[in-house]
Amino acid sequence: MARTWRTVAVVLVITMLAGGCRGSTPGEVEPFRPGWSAVALPPPAGPPGRLVLRDVAACAGRWFAVGAVRAADGATRPAAWASTDARTWTALAVTGTSHYGRQNILYAAACRDGRLAAIGSKVGGVHGNPRVSTWAQADEGRLAEVPTPFERFGGPEAVNVARMVGGPPGWLIVGNRVRGAAVWLSADATEFELVDGASELASDARGRTWVFDAVATTQGWLAVGAVRHTGRTTPEPVAWASGDGRTWRRLDVPVAGGSGELQRVATVDGVPVAVGLSDGRFGAWRAGGDGWARVGRFGTVTGPGLPSVRGVAVAGDRLVVAVVDGSGHELWTSTDHGGSWRRIVAPLGTARLDGDSGIAVATAGDRLLLAVDDAGGATMWLTGIH
Fold this sequence. Notes:
This is WD40/YVTN/BNR-like repeat-containing protein. Helices cover 6% and strands 53% of the residues.
C-alpha cells in the first residue's frame, strides 16, 4: 500500500506541475499558484476497495473527510477520516445499523465543536430511490448511523437531501420535498425534525422553490437557493433567513435581467456571501444593510457537463470555491467578499468530473484542503494560503 501511494503521489505531482504551467487567458488576473502537497488517506479496516471521497470539513482544530470504500464488485460501505493537522489522517470506526446504512456513501460533512456529522445515501428499494441516513460522531470518536424512520428523509414526498451545517443554534439539513424547499433541525445531530411546507420557504403561488445550502449566522440560519416563478422558464436567486429554523423570511436577491441561483453560502468576516450561477457565468452575491447585491462574476460555464458550485470555504478574509464549469473543475478565490476573483491553479489541472465524482474544499487557519474524486481515483491535497 505504501508503495502504491508513493507511485500515485509521483504521478500526481507531475500532473500538478504540468497544470501549474498553464498561463492565464488574456484579461484574466494572473492565477494564484500555491505549492500543493499530496495527502494520503489510510484504508479503513475491512475488505479492500477503491476509496471514494465526497466531502471535507474543518472546525475547532479538527479536520474530517467522508466518503466510502467501493469493492471490486461495486459494493460500498461508508468511510470517514479525521486529522488534527490535515496531513496525517486516521480512519474512523463507522457503524451502520440499517441495511442501506451499511452501504451508504457519505456525501455531505459538517462539524461543530470539533465533532463530525454527515449525510449518506445508497440507491435501493423497488423504486431505486436514494435511501438517506444521517451519521453522528460519538464521544469515543466512532461515527454511528442515526436510526431514523424511512419517511423522515424519504417516502412519497421526498425529492433530495442536500447539505448539512453545524453552528451555535445546533444542526440544520437543507433539501427539497414535493412542496418545495424544506429543512431538518436537530440540537445534537441525533434526532432531526422535518420542517416541510413552511410559509415563505416552501413553494407557493409565486413559484417553485429550491434550496441548495445554508450557514449559521449570529441571528440563526441563512439558506440560499432559487425560485422558478410561475410563468417563467428560468430560475432566479433567492435567500431565506430564520431565527429558529421553523419560521422563515424570504429575501429578495437581484438578478440582472436573466437567470441565476445561489448554490453555496458562507460568512466572511461576519458578512454572508453566496456563490452560484449568474447569466452564463459564476457569480457572487453579498448581503448588507440594504439587502443583497450581486458583486462579482468569474469563470465560464461552457462544455457538455452541468455547471455547479461544489464547495466553499473561508480562511480569514479569503473565500475559496470549487466549481465544475461543464468541461472540468476549477478553484477560485476572493479576498473582498466576492467582488473580484482570482483562479487558483489546482494540482490536477482541470480534469472533467462525471456524475460519479466529487470535489470539496475546507480551510482552517492559513491551510486549504482539497479533495478530488474523478476517473483517476480519490486524492487529497494541502496547501498554505495567505
